[in-house]
Amino acid sequence: MHTQKHTLSAPSLEELVETLQAPLAANYEHTTVSVVPCPDLRKAPFHLATEGLSGDEKIADVGGQPNLFPRPRLDCIYSMPDIAKAMEMSSARGSLIGAGAGPFHVVGQNCELAPNLSWQDGFENLDNQTRIVRIRRDTGAVSLQKSTCPDCALMVNLYGSLGEPGPVIKITARKRKGPEKSFTGCIRKGLLAAYSESRTVSLGGAFLVKAGKARFHVMPDFPSEEELPFKDRNQLENWLTYHDYEAPIVCLSVLHSADPDNAMGLRIEHTHCFSPLGDNAGGHYHYDVEGAEEIEYEAYFNTAKAIYRVDMPVVASD
């Protein structure tokens, strides 16, 4: 896999607290932003594969949406341990969380993926808590299950670290009053306003939809050959299935304030989710549902010190 590395100059967590307070307070009735010791994220309600988000923090953007549109590239299959090696992560221990497309070649159909795994004493010694979300062919219902392999496909955005405890940014937000319906969108736009496109600030972590309701999409199975290629983005959007889920929902997120020099083809924000309570809720986070005055979020994020752009798709020019 061809890999491009970009080293980041991350601001301190204390600086980010000051940076994010105003945009969050403008969008939510009640907010807090602080630096805290990371709680044990292995415990409920987060159920991550490692305790924290610290140690050798980095982000990978692998493949990308051009591998889906205008036609799925079924040869784009990735192993997350191999991605960890491309990210120069230690084989002694580490973790990956994030958002991507699932291993259709194993599941038997196209699906969403919420990566959530760790390893110790070798990449082969995995604790794989990754969730797969699919649309059942027989009923059209959303189905959530644990992954049986560490593979993904088409595209994936990953936050990697040693999974150690350490300081993180804690954000709470309740009762949206502003126009930005996406919690991650509010954070990202606040970073962009503060740092412009001249400095990239990248975050990874987990947040909980603690109360209220939010909207998600789940990709169905790939269209038939007769229905391909996707003619435009509207057709692609209409192909997705949309679902509103009640809290609690665990969300694994990667976001960037900007693409460095607009040269890496980054997906600027990507968040995938799963229910900690059942097997019928998960997918790609969009935003809280309009009119959900009781929306409440609780988030833990850390900064990345490097971005790895892996297997960047070659997009034909018009």
Automatic annotation (TrEMBL):
GO CC annotation terms, alphabetical: nucleus
Compartments it resides in: Nucleus
InterPro entries registered for this protein in UniProt: C11orf54_DUF1907
Keyword Metal-binding: yes
Pfam families: DUF1907
Entry keyword Nucleus: yes
UniProt keyword terms in alphabetical order: Hydrolase, Metal-binding, Nucleus, Zinc
Name this polypeptide is given: DUF1907-domain-containing protein
GO molecular function list: hydrolase activity, acting on ester bonds; zinc ion binding
Subunit and partners: Monomer.
Residue ranges of domain DUF1907 in the record: 19-310
Record lineage: Eukaryota, Fungi, Dikarya, Ascomycota, Pezizomycotina
Top-level taxon in the UniProt lineage: Eukaryota
